[in-house]
Amino acid sequence: MAAVGTPENPLRVAIIGSGPSGFYTVSNLLKQSDLSVEMDMFDRLPTPYGLVRAGVAPDHQKDKSVTRAYEKSAAHPGFRFFGNVEYGTHIHMDDLKAHYHQVMFTTGSPFDRNLGIPGEDLEGSHSATEFVAWYNGHPDFADLKFDLTQESVAVVGMGNVAMDVARILCKTTEELAVTDIAEHALEALKASQVKNVYILGRRGPAQAAFTPPEIKEMGEFEDADVVVMESEAALDAASQQALEASGDKNAQKNVDTVQEYASRSLTGKKRQLHIRFLVSPSELEGEGGRVTACKLVKNKLVEESGSIKAVATSEEEVIPAGLVFRSVGYRGKPLPDVPFNDSWGTIANEGGRVVDASGAQAIGLYTAGWIKRGPSGVIGTNKTCAQETVNLMIEDLAAGRHFEPTQSRDALADLVLSRQPDAITFAEWKKIDDEEVARGEAKGKPRVKFTQVAEMVAVARS
Ligand code: NAP
C-alpha cells in the first residue's frame, strides 16, 4: 500500500466542529506541500461556521467576512461537509477510527461560567451565551424569552461578549434593523423598555478585557449616553505603574477612552449605558422568584505576584436590575471518549495533541480552538492555533502515529446517511445560505436567518 498522504493513499482527516478553528485546520492541511488529503467536517447544526454565525454580533458584519476564505477551503475536491450530524449521537469514536487516520476536535466552548452567588438562579438571570445565541438565531436558543419590559439590566463581566450584549441592548431598532439579527430578536427588542444598562467590571479600566474598538463603539450610540464615574475611571498608583511598565498600547487606549467618557455630560438620550469598575455582584435580590436588583461589593486593587487583583472592601451598593446577564467566560463541553481537563474546561492536550490521564499521547486525536486552549483571542487567533496542531499532525503522520482505517470514504457517507437521513452537504448549506441572503435583500439586510432545523432541512432538500 502506498504511503499515507500520497495521491494513491490520501491522509484522511475527520474534523468535528465547523467553526473558525475547524476551517483553519482545513486551510492549514491544504497548505502542506506534497500532502494529499481528504477531509470530512461534521457539525451538529445544518449550518457551518460556529461562532462566526452564532456568536459574532450581528452589527459586526465585517468580522463575518472570514467565511469567504472558509468557502474557498470547502470548494477543495477533498473536502466534504456533514451538517446536522452530531458526534456522540450519529457518529462515534469507533466509526472515526474505522474511517480516518486522524481526528481533529474543534468544538469550541459552549458552556458559560457561573458567578457562584446567591440568587443566580432567579428568573431573569441568564448567561450571556443564551442571549447571544438567541439574538443570533441559533436553533437551540431561538425559542427563549427575555423580559425586555424591564428598565434596568446588569451585564456582569468586562470582556468583548459583555460589550456585544450591552451594545445590542443599547442600539435603536433602526440601528439593528440593517443587521442580520434574528427576526424574533428584532421584534422583541423593538418593544424593549430598557433604559439603563450597567456593565459591571470587578477591576479597573487598565485591566478590562475589552479591546479598544469595542469600547470606542460604546460612545457612539444613536440614542444611548455612556456614563462613567470619574472616581472609577481614575487609575490607582499600582495600575498606573503597571500600565507604564507594560507598555501595553491597547490597555492605554482603553483607559484613555474610559477617561474621556468620564468627562462627558448626559445629552438626554433615551438610554444610559453605565460602565462601572471596581464592583463585584455579591447577590442577586428578587421578589416572587424574579430578580429585581443586584447587590454589589466595591473592590480595591492589590498587586499580588505580579498581577493586579480585585479585593472586596466592606462598602456595598444595590443597583436595580430586572434582567441580569453573566458574561464571565466560557467552558468546553466534554465529548464521549475524548479525555477532558475539567479544571480548564478543555480537551486534555499538549499543544493540540490529545493526551490521556497519564499524560501519554492519545494516538490519532487532536484539537484546536477554544476547546484546546480555552475561550480567548479573536477569530484570527484560531488560525495560528490550528496551524500549531496541524504541524503536530504532520509530524505524527511522518512517524506513522495515526489510526489505520479499514473502511472506505463512500462507506462513511453511507453510514452517516443510515443514521441521519437529514445530513446536510456543503452544496445544500449553500442553498440555505442563498435563500437567507435573498430573504435579506428584500429587507435591506445581509440575510434573514432560518432559526429552526426543520426549516433549514426543507430548504436544503427543496
Ligand atoms: P473574556 O474576554 O475572558 O472576559 C471575561 C470577563 O469576565 C473579564 O472582564 C473578567 O474579569 C470577568 N470575570 C471573570 N470572572 C468573574 C467573576 N467571578 N466576577 C466578575 N467578573 C468576572 O471573555 P469573553 O468576553 O467571554 O470573550 C471571550 C473571547 O472572545 C475573548 O478573547 C474576546 O476578546 C473574544 N471576543 C471577541 C470579540 C470581538 O473581537 N469583537 C467579540 C466577542 C468575543 P477579570 O479580567 O478581572 O478576570
Question: How is this structure best described in words?
Answer:
There is one protein chain. The chain has helices at 20-30, 50-54, 61-64, 67-74, 93-99, 128-135, 160-170, 173-177, 183-190, 212-217, 230-233, 237-246, 249-262, 370-373, 381-398, 409-419, 426-441, 453-461, and strands at 11-16, 37-43, 79-83, 102-105, 111-112, 125-127, 152-156, 196-200, 224-227, 271-276, 279-287, 290-304, 307-320, 323-326, 330-331, 340-341, 346-347, 349-350, 353-355, 361-367. 34% of the residues lie in helices and 23% in strands. It folds into two domains: 11-110 and 332-424, NAD(P)-binding Rossmann-like Domain (Rossmann fold), CATH 3.40.50; 112-327, FAD/NAD(P)-binding domain (3-Layer(bba) Sandwich), CATH 3.50.50.60. The mean pLDDT is 97. The chain is built from 18 helices and 20 strands. The chain is of the alpha/beta class and 462 residues long. NADP nicotinamide-adenine-dinucleotide phosphate binds at residues 115, 156-162, 164, 201-203, 207, 209, 214, 280, 327-330, 375-378.
Question: Can you give keywords for this protein?
Answer:
462 residues; alpha/beta; Rossmann fold; FAD/NAD(P)-binding domain; 6-stranded parallel β-sheet; 18 helices; globular; binds NADP nicotinamide-adenine-dinucleotide phosphate
Q: Mean of the pLDDT scores?
A: 97
What is the CATH architecture descriptor of the largest domain?
3-Layer(bba) Sandwich
CATH topology heading of the largest domain: FAD/NAD(P)-binding domain
**Helix and strand composition category:** alpha/beta
- Strands, count: 20
Largest sheet: 7 strands, mixed
* Percentage beta strand: 15-25%
Instruction: Give the neighbour order of strands across the main sheet.
Output: 3-2-1-4-20-19-18
Percent helix range: 25-40%
CATH superfamily of the largest domain: FAD/NAD(P)-binding domain
- Low-pLDDT stretches are none
Give the distinct bound molecules: NADP nicotinamide-adenine-dinucleotide phosphate
How many structural units, i.e. domains? 2
